Amino acid sequence: MARHIVARTTEIPPGGNKVVDIAGRDIVVFHVNGEFFALLNRCPHEGAPLEKAACVARLTSPEPGVYERSRVGEMLRCPWHGWEFDMRSGQSWFDPNRVKIRSYPVAVERGEELQKGPYVAETFPVHVEDSYVIVEI
Ligand code: FES
């Protein structure tokens, strides 16, 4: 699997996203609570662009009349028909074993760790003798 540098972390604000083309695939990268998630930018239902999806919280109900919000911003609600997906895995909320969005691994790395170039200057031995500096070439 090839690695592709798609953005500086500052390019995608918290709660925002960026669409990138990687090898002909439309991928949307979301920034949620300091984490980044990459998904195919196409809803598996009828193909809506997920860059337009609402990033909502997971809502559960342990008993009638009681609602709990968790994982704020990690659930995607499709803009066309409202199907919901877990951004972390791509799985749909209503049928997680059959319907899912393709998701991709994401890593955040410091710029200098991405690629070490051959930026090595030629060096020469240096000696100090009395008060003269001598460079050997
Ligand atoms: S296209 Fe996404 S729910 Fe219909």
Can you describe what's shown?
It is built from one helix and nine strands. The chain has one helix at 111-114, and strands at 17-22, 25-32, 35-40, 54-63, 66-77, 84-86, 103-104, 126-129, 132-135. The two termini are 45 Å apart. The structure holds FE2/S2 (inorganic) cluster. Residues 43, 45-48, 78, 80-81, 83 line the site of FE2/S2 (inorganic) cluster (FES). Pfam families: Rieske. GO terms for molecular function: 2 iron, 2 sulfur cluster binding; metal ion binding. This is Rieske (2Fe-2S) protein. Residues 4-115 form the Rieske domain.
What is the CATH homology-level superfamily? Rieske [2Fe-2S] iron-sulphur domain
Distance between the termini: 45 Å
What binds here, in terms of ligands, is: FE2/S2 (inorganic) cluster
Cα-based radius of gyration, to the nearest Å: 24 Å
State the CATH architecture. 3-layer Sandwich
Question: Would you count the extended β strands for me?
Answer: 9
* Structural class by SSE content: mainly beta
Largest sheet: 4 strands, antiparallel
